[in-house]
Sequence to fold (178 residues):
Amino acid sequence: YGSDFCDLRFPDNTPPAVRSPLSPPYRSVGDTELATGYVRNRNLLSFEEGLVYMTTLPRIEDQSAGVYGIIDDEVRRKIAHLDIKGIHATCEKLPRKELRTICMEGILTGFNNGITPEKKFDRMNEFCALYTVGSASRHACFGGIRGRLLAQNTYEEIAAQCASITRPADAAACTGDL
Fold:
């Protein structure tokens, strides 16, 4: 669309100007697109600045959609050289539990959609293993792997991948109710 389209779409250079007219259920989709399309592609804010900006939006739903969009985009952009420990630490610094959870989900989605099928499981497993053993976040993360793999794998393939996880509790969370 070019810069003329962006200048017309965002006349006051303020992202909330495009959010305010949107009503549910479109608002969260709008914020996800805002996060990746406006904040990131217009180079107005770095990844870290964009993530912080999204946490300042007035509604938790808007914050969640923005955080999800930015983190998923960041994982896809840097997939070949992603610092998994660094991105995990960035999520853990977010001010609310809900945002830390959505950040984790965005990372798993970024791995699922941004990397070759044969490496998805390994990268997601490596990421989830960074959470504290026995924590609810770790359990949710390993459970999130299953959900991402369901679209492209059979139950048997997922069960075999999950069975390869070293810690039995993590393997069980990954397998879930398959």
Observations:
- DSSP finds eleven helices and no strands in the chain.
- Residues 4 and 10 are 10 Å apart (CA to CA).
- Residues 1-11 have pLDDT under 50 and may be disordered.
- The two ends are 45 Å apart (CA to CA).
